[in-house]
Amino acid sequence: MTRLRPIIEAIGLEKRFTLSAGPFRPQATVHAVDGVDLAVYPGETLALVGESGCGKSTLGRMLVGLMPPSGGDVIYRGRNLAGLAEKDRRALRRDLQIIFQDPFSSLNPRMLVGDIVGEPLWLHDGLGRRARRERVAELLGLVGLAAEHAERYPHEFSGGQRQRIGIARALASRPTVIVGDEPVSALDISVQAQIVNLLEELKERLGLTLVVVAHGLGVIRHMSDRVAVMYLGEIVEVATADALFETPLHPYTQALIAANPAAAAGARPKRSLLEGEVPSPTAPPSGCRFHTRCPHARALCRDSRPPLAPAGSDIGWQVACHFWADIAAAGGGAPIAPARPAALTRRLALFTAHSTASRHEE
């Protein structure tokens, strides 16, 4: 079977922020993202999850070129974003868009909705006023709003409606990849499902590739094909959504899922509570960064950083843990070769279909 080609890929991606010195604080460097390798495939929804401060939002913004990396590369359809001239980078921005977390602060309160949604049409396509007005009406209808809403200001809408406006703005340039930076976390629980369903519908209708940054595991399981789990700037596990929730292999992933009641689907899993505080990203631990809180840590974990390597029985399943197989065999998590559930088989069919298409390209 021909290997599927990523539409966007991170290779050794790093992002560091320098904190200036204060009266009681020396200058320090925050290791927000550290050596991340990640592939996003055409037509899928990939979720980035982890505790607050793990670097998932920073990673998502670097994938669409909104934030320059400190090291490593972002490859979009064979082109390195870091090496592009400004003219070429601007042309690619229409393909890579983002939906921001807070619909209250991401929309200019002094601009009419029609101008907010229509600005990318003028910037990327150079459309005239009449053509922009027609396209704006089309985009608003696409996200469940009316054409007359273009003549209102953002403060006249609810939180869910504002997020729909943000989605319409992201769709204006006809992108191929959209990053949702916690697109529903600022919304009421009753509205979250509507926005999630809208994103899924738009993905299928427009052939989009989605990268969703989130911490709500219930939302992630509902809408994602694959999940990448982050801890202190590193990816510790990548798997299909069904496999990850059915049989998580990394101790950190097990703890995340066990601590989330909604993810248990009515069951009462064995609690895997973490001890201690999250280490500071200005001074991350040596070796495995999770070893300071991991109940299965050994001397090797303190001395050697585990690579993100193939694990489990399914295509693309990767785990960064020296002893995941021993932990599973001892009953600390999933079996070493977990059975593939029927739902997982359906999701893997997505990759098979894209792989078949790639044969013709080669």
Structural account:
- This protein starts with 7 loop residues before the first strand and ends with a helix.
- Helix 3 packs parallel to helix 5.
- Strand 1 and strand 2 form a beta hairpin.
- It contains 12 helices and 12 strands.
- An 8-stranded mixed sheet has the order 6-7-8-3-9-10-12-11, with helices on both faces.
- The C terminus is likely disordered.
- The chain has 362 residues and is an alpha/beta fold.
- 35% of the residues lie in helices and 19% in strands.
Task: Give a nutshell description of this structure.
This protein has 362 residues and is an alpha/beta fold.
The ordered H/E elements are EEEHEEHEHHHEHEHEEHHHEEHH
Low-confidence stretches: 334-362
> Mean pLDDT across all residues, rounded?
85
Question: First CA to last CA: what distance?
Answer: 12 Å
Main sheet: strands, sense, barrel: 8 strands, mixed
β content, as a range? Answer: 15-25%
Gyration radius, to the nearest Å? 21 Å
Gross morphology is globular
Broad structural category:
alpha/beta
What percent of residues adopt helix (DSSP H or I)? 25-40%
Strand element count: 12
Order of strands, widest sheet: 6-7-8-3-9-10-12-11
**What's the tally of helices?**
12
